[in-house]
Amino acid sequence: MQARTALSTLAAGALVLGTALPGSAGGGPSTEVVTSDVIAPFNLALSGHHVYVADGFAVQVSKIGRGGGLVPVANPTTAEDVAGVDVNDYGRIAWTETNFTAATATLEVRGPKGYSLSADLRRIEDVRNPDRKVEYGINGPGPCVRAAFEEIGAPVEYTGLVDAHPYAVTAWKDGSWIVADAGGNDLLKVDRRGRVSLVAVLPVHPITFTAEQATALGLPSCVVGKTYRFEPVPTDVEVGPDGMLYVSTLPGGPEDPSLGARGAVYTVNPATGKATKVASGFAGATNLAVAKNGTIYVTELFGGQVSRIKNGKVTPFVSIANALSVEVDRGGLWVGTLAPLGEMGPEGPGTVVRVRW
Predict the structure, then answer these.
(1) CA 224, CA 232: separation in Å to the nearest integer?
(2) 24-28, 219-223, 239-243, 304-308: lowest mean pLDDT where?
(3) Residue 34 in contact with residue 353, Cβ under 8 Å?
C-alpha cells in the first residue's frame, strides 16, 4: 500500500470514472472547453493572460494559444513524467521532471535573457530521505494481519523509503520555488542558486479499518479495528494570501474510492514546517487553488467535481468529470481534466475548461 502518484496510478483510478464531458451543475457556474489538445494536465499555471499546462502523459509543458492550440514550451527528452508548472514575477517558468527508470528528479527553470537552472531534487532523498523515521503501516501486526497484507502485496510496517516524484511547484520569495514531492511525502525549497532544502514532511494519514473497508480490499476480519498509517502523498502546493503554504494530499494505498473519500488539505507554516489540517473527505484531492480572499478550490478526481472551502466549510462548487487540476483568477477557475482511459491508453482527449463565476 505504499503511495505512488505515478502516471499508472492515476490512469488506473480514471478507469472508475465515466466519459462524461465537463458540465456545470444546474444553476451553477458556466463552463467552456478552451482546449482538448491535452491528455493529462496534471498542473496549470497562470501568468497575465497566459495559461500554461504540464501534461504528464505527453511529457510536455505548453502554453494555450489562440483558438485553443498548444504552443510547446518544453519537450524534455530524458523525462518520463512532467507534472508541476508555475511562473514567477521575474518571468521565469519552472516545471518538474521525473525519470523513474533512471531514478532522477529535477526542477527545471527557464527565463528571459537565456536564464537556465536545473536543480537536483533526487539527491535530498538519496542522502537524507526526510521521512526515513516516519512509521507507516501497522505497528506490531499479529500473524493474521501480517499474512493478510502480504497476501495482497502490501507492506505491513515500514519507514519512509527513498523515493522522489516532484508533482507540483509554486513560486516563492526572491526567485525561489517550493516543490511538493509526492514520492518523498514532503515539501522542498529550491533557491535561486538551485540549492535544495527541506521545508516540511507531511503528516501520516491513519485509517482504522471498518468491516466494509476490509471487504473492499479482500482482507479478513482480523484487520477490522486495526489502524494503518498511510503515506500523505502531496499533490499540489500553493501560496495563500496569508503567506502560508496550502497543500492537497492524495493518501497512499488504494487511491480510488474503495476506502472512501480520504483526500485532505493542509496549511504548512514555511518557517516551522508545522502542518495543520484545513479540511478532509475529498474523493481524490489531486490539486488546489487559493483565491486572494482565502477561498480554496479542490479538484476531486474520483468525485467528478471541484469543491470549495470557505470559512472552514466544504461545499461542492462545480461538477466536472475527471477534474484533475485547478487555478483561480478574478474571472473564475481554470480546470484541467484527465482523458478517459482504457486498458490500452487514452480513449479520448483531456481538456482545459474555463469556469466563470
Answers:
(1) 22
(2) 24-28
(3) yes
Instruction: Assign 127 to helix, strand or coil.
Output: helix
Cβ atoms of residues 36 and 349 within 8 Å: yes
Three-state DSSP state, 137: strand
Contacts of residue 35, defined as CB under 8 A and 6 or more positions apart, other chains included, come to 64, 68, 69, 70, 351, 352
Whole-number Cα distances in Å, 272 to 30, 58, 156, 250? 40, 37, 31, 23
Condensed to tens digits (0 to 9), the pLDDT of residues 67-92 reads 999 999 999 999 999 999 999 999 99
For residues 215-236, b (16+ Cβ closer than 10 Å) or e, as one string?
ebbebeebbeebebbbbbbbbb
- Taking residue 66's Cβ as centre, other Cβ atoms within 10 Å add up to 6
Q: Are 320 and 337 in contact (CB under 8 A)?
A: yes
CA angle (43 as vertex; 41, 44 as ends), nearest 5: 95
Phi then psi for 254, rounded to 5 degrees? -65, 115
**Contact in structure between 187 and 168 (CB atoms under 8 Å):** no
Upper half-sphere CA count for residue 77 (Cβ side, 13 Å): 0
Which residues have C-beta within 8 Å of that of residue 25, sequence separation ≥ 6? 316, 318, 319
Measuring CA to CA, how many Å separate 104 from each of 118, 152, 183? 12, 29, 12
pLDDT band at 187 (very low <50, low <70, confident <90, very high): very high
What strands, in cross-sheet order, belong to the sheet with 205-208? 157-159, 135-137, 227-230, 205-208
Sequence letter at residue 131: D
- Chain centroid to Cα 154, Å, comes to 22
Average pLDDT (119-127) is 98
Which 3 state secondary structure label does DSSP give 146?
A: helix
Cα–Cα distances in angstroms (integers) from residue 10 to residues 79, 92, 102, 285, 346, in the given order? 18, 29, 21, 12, 12
Does 4 have pLDDT greater than 50? no
Three-state DSSP class for residue 11: helix
Global pTM value? 0.93
